[in-house]
Amino acid sequence: MSVAIVGVAESDLGVTGRSILHLQAQAVTGALRDAGLTLAEIDGLATAGASRFSAAQVAEYLGIQPAWTDSTFAGGSAFEMYVARAVQAIEAGQCTTVLVSYGSNQRSARSRSLGGVVEEHTPQAEFEAPYGALYPVSYYAMAAQRYLHERGAGREDLAEVAVAAREWALLNPKAYRHRAGPLTVEEVLAQPMISSPLTAADCCLVTDGGAALVLTTLERARDLRTDPVVVLGYGESTTHDGMAAPANLLRTGTIDAGRRAFARAGLGPADVDVAQLYDSFTITVLLTLEGLGLCGPGEAGDLVRSRRLPFNTTGGGLSYCHPGMYGLLLLVEAVRQVRGECGPRQVPGVEVALAHGVGGILSTHATVLLGADR
């Protein structure tokens, strides 16, 4: 049985003054409208962001009683994981139509908190917190320093990621930085240093926002309003929690997550027409490009600079929006690119789109491959 995404939407973005549940409801309403479905037809729910009991809280707010739920907290990769779980649940007959949703009002609430506080009596509390690292930027900065040293790259390679993101944001009216104007490598490098080698422009935005998508069987999807986007493959990998644990900061779980997704889809990196990659920091993108096999080790900077592979076509977390956990918005854009709905930022002839989420401190990784129904 094949499963397809039949509806997508985002909520208001930026500085909204809305509650988390309001933002979720906005996105859900839009995704159902896009699909031509009603809440009464939803019998599966996967969600995060509202509380430790997100699924129950969101279901109550929406007035539904789903037969299947998932509210696994895995940071930014959770939503790619939800797609995999939803496909499995539909195939197993646990439910027929799954809603995936998320919302965050971090910007309005003036908060970066998403469960990132180090708990007592953990290895992180004993061996990492006493050194006063900025969470999470200093940890990503450690990976960036190692990358520059081992790959022989320069800070300009990191900066190119932010420059490319801004170029796409200028084509996206919903992007937070849409009117900010072009960005140059020199401007990225001249921004205040937050945690060496990452400047402010190497770090993602903090915004409000939410998103939702709806999945059902491909057979049913073909009778609905929009062109179905088929889930071709998925894979994930969870490697560690604290930053002291990884033996090699440059061998991330992206490698195994991507390999599993490509194997399930019967595809390879060369088949990807457009990629939506988690960009919490510029280093995240370089590691992801290499980990997915979209280029070789140390070649990510050149790939970005060449603009050969379209990625983060909304402007990404660096210039579009970043409401705490960004992974669901990657999927929304991937679906729209496959459908050909992106206007001036549309990549011609998209048959296969990739979305890759990253959570924690390069801790959790999940890849989803989406394709047109041919």
Automatic annotation (TrEMBL):
Under the heading CDD domains, the entry gives: SCP-x_thiolase
A GO molecular function annotation here is: acyltransferase activity, transferring groups other than amino-acyl groups
Q: Which domain of life is it from?
A: Bacteria
Q: Where is the Thiolase C-terminal domain?
A: 235-371
In Swiss-Prot or TrEMBL terms, this protein is called: Acetyl-CoA acetyltransferase
Species for this entry: Nonomuraea thailandensis
Upper classification of the source organism reads: Bacteria, Bacillati, Actinomycetota, Actinomycetes, Streptosporangiales
